[in-house]
Write the structure tokens for this entry.
Amino acid sequence: MLLKTKHYICKLDKFLKKLAKSFKYWIFIFCLISLRFQQPSNYDTNAKIKAVFLYNFTRYFEWSDKKKTGNFVIYVVGKNDNLITELKTLSGKKKVGNQDIEIKNSFAFDAAIQAQIIYLLPDVSKAIADVSSKSKSKGTLVVAESPNACKTGSSINFVIVENKLKFEYNKTNAVKAGLKTNDDFKALAINVE
Amino acid sequence: MSKWRNIIKIFTYSMLMLCMVNGFAQNDKLNRAQQLLQEKNVDQAMLAIDSVILHSETKGDFVSWTTRAYIYFEIYKRTDKQKLNSALRDTIIFSLKRSNTLKPDETFATNNKKLLSNLSAGYFNLSKTLLMDSINYKRSVIAYNRFKENFIIAEPGTNFTARDVEYYLAVGSLYSDIFNKNNKNTEAQETAKIALLKVLDMQPENPSANINLGIMYYNQAVNLGKELDYGASFNQIDIVQENIIKLAKQAEQFIIKVYKVDNKNVKAVEALHSIYKMLNEKAKEEDFKKKCKELNIKLD
């Protein structure tokens, strides 16, 4: 009786060995999966936040009648591909009043481009004073992203406070640029005079 | 008087004979069951062996229980291998356990162990199938725990830490992938987080768990940014920024642990660059940008 069972066990052994092989195979697969790393997203959240800020600015300023016709131009000077992508997406989704939003970009300032907002990126921060003086009384909101930009002529300047993007505001510069605004906006900003 | 004595004698002999015949009959049944098993007539073998294990003469014999396990195993192979809950599998395990309590000889003990190990392997394979093919973590973890329960009987003293780490890392990795593809699937995110935290309970410095958990928090922060409406108010922007910062700092905590142990870990360096960029920490961002260049990490 024992012999019969032992004989059967031998036959079964082959099957069990096969099963053991597949067990080892799955352990190997688990090892491979467990060693796989996730990939950090390359999406630029700061570019998105800046785009949302820029769109918000349009709600708090009043441009001259002349600037209320045609497209609402946001002119970005300097290099930031992610920001341009975000602004272009924004322009496809939002309007300023009845005006379509148009995004223009160049690496150096071009005075021939008529815009409602000029955004000077950090790599062109040296041009702030020049651009601000050329934009005086033209109803153009100059936004910058560099230390002391509001003191060198920009109306708005992006700053980082405790990891957060915030903005400084110089009302005098905005008035000089020919823009009307209200005190609500002042309350939202870090004021610089 | 002598008449009665004769009657009692005859009755006693008859009873003894009956018991012996019955005992032989049971042994014959066991023999028959084994014969049927060899002939692959397992349904008949099952009927025979089920009567064998009920009889007092044979129920205390380890051969009966091991034979029963093998007979049921043949049926199990045909129909129940892919089932999480299988009465056949339960019967095999019960029979093997019973056989083991009856002090089997070395050959039977070894083969009981083999069959039990392989049933455990079956549970392990099932846990993999349920996880990777069906994406059913709840059922997969049941199968995985049953694998451990049975394997420890076959191989007492087995340390499962390494296997647990692999299993939960696989769960974490798979469910992080699902969450990264669909950031609204918070159940997947929770499953991944719990699995990866289990790994960190066992191995606090585990690089895969730390990096995957850190990147999951980072990607969650990215998703908040992506979902931010272009028309959001300053107040809404502020709330989103707060949450992004919280998540990015949580991500940093996990990744920095890996970086401190291995400052050339490509994934850690790349992730820290992204985190410091998100946190607007320019000096650190630049520092890790340089490290990325040194390690030939391409940045978008």
Q: What stands out?
A: Strands of chain A lie at 61-62, 72-77, 95-96, 99-106, 117-120, 141-144, 156-161, 164-169, 180-181, 190-191.
